[in-house]
């Protein structure tokens, strides 16, 4: 492609993107202006209601905070807890009681153990809703560390609720919760409950910061949205006002016309779908390229590193210990180098061949008659030395001739036999056969290996390996281009290749044109 044509395509693509961006921007501007105008009244009203709700929460929290800060006072019952965890009643309801402090003795509220531990951690006063000794009626507990133990004072919940008379004037659809640091919630009246699951995180945020609001999802008695407003009381306590979102949002709501919404939505959808389709194709192409690049780098790094490491090890040993090695040891190390060198050369040759085939720069084939039986015997003879655990059986009539290339046909057979050896974990028989089928010749390579994956077409893609790669008998691995090379070379010869599952192992069948001429060239 010429430079001018490339620039033309680039400018065209840039123009398309620019038009899409401009159209989307104009539509977005129209949509934003419309939505802002329609929702402005509702937004202002909601902000005003939220502010009123926060002011009400503050009105509840202020007297309660003052009361909590002044506690304990007259009318409180007192007991003392020593360092060993035993309590002794001092006044009020505890005067005749003594025993061990307990941890969460009842279903709701903390135990004396939690209250004492909280005061110890804070090195100062701690307040919680606790269950007093001998009762499951929650009380307000204040623990103060003293010499040799902790002094605990308690009072009834009624005394707390009496500090917030405004709570009785709340609407029936608004719930008020006073939540302690342990997540126990108090409501108007002498009742303590475990705070609903959605409430403790919000209450903790309120207790540690400023008055705020939030929309949350309440699970009980049904899954629904609620609006919460909260204000801190101090000492980790907070006041929460809660109302169903449906009741909070009641009021005049300005809605745009259905026609305007439909028109704007349709325009947006058309632009976004077009842009999404274009982006999806681009991303898919990029992912495909990235996947191939990643696979190439992974297999290349592994397959080149192994022989290079071995070769380097042998060479380093010879260089560093030459004088200390005997002649037999030197010869043994030198004799191992060609095997690794051949392995390295094999990997590089296959990668170069696959790269050339993908780029379409491989040399043209020279079609000539090829004796199939002779070609099969030759490749079997080569692998009998390389794979001694396998038995190679050739079954091909001597007069079967195909139209092929003297280099291409051996490459195809070598790749298929190499594949059969790799995926035969217990050795076994590798059968190389050929037969005539309606003017063509089918060359089959059967093995007794691990079989084939579910996707038979994908195994012929570049850089794709079988599912049971770990089951190979040899440690040579592979770069995942063997079957891709086979398929491409078969197409160059006007033939095809397919994979077939067997009860044990796999079969690859190469189909080539039969030649009526006598084989003139040796393979």
- Give the strand tally: 19
Task: Output the number of helix runs.
Answer: 10
Which range does the strand content fall in?
Answer: 15-25%
Biggest sheet overview: 6 strands, antiparallel
Shape designation: elongated
Could you write a compact summary of the structure shown?
The chain is an alpha+beta fold. It has ten helices and 19 strands.
Overview of the molecule:
With 523 residues, the protein is an alpha+beta fold. The strands form 4 sheets. The chain has a 6-stranded antiparallel sheet with strand order 3-2-1-6-5-4. A 6-stranded antiparallel sheet has the order 9-8-7-12-11-10. Strand 18 and strand 19 form a beta hairpin. The longest helix has 68 residues. The radius of gyration is 42 Å and the shape is elongated.
Main features:
10 helices; disordered N terminus; 6-stranded antiparallel beta sheet; alpha+beta; 523 residues; elongated
Layout of secondary structure:
Blueprint: H1 3-70, E1 77-82, E2 86-89, E3 98-100, H2 112-122, E4 126-130, E5 139-146, E6 149-156, H3 157-161, E7 174-179, E8 184-187, E9 191-194, H4 199-207, E10 212-218, E11 224-234, E12 237-244, H5 245-248, H6 258-321, H7 327-359, E13 368-371, H8 372-386, E14 390-395, E15 401-404, H9 408-422, E16 428-437, E17 440-446, H10 482-492, E18 496-501, E19 506-513
Parallel strand pairs: 14-16
Antiparallel strand pairs: 1-2, 1-6, 2-3, 4-5, 5-6, 7-8, 7-12, 8-9, 10-11, 11-12, 13-15, 16-17, 17-19, 18-19
Helix pairs in contact: 1-6, 6-7, 7-10, 8-9, 9-10
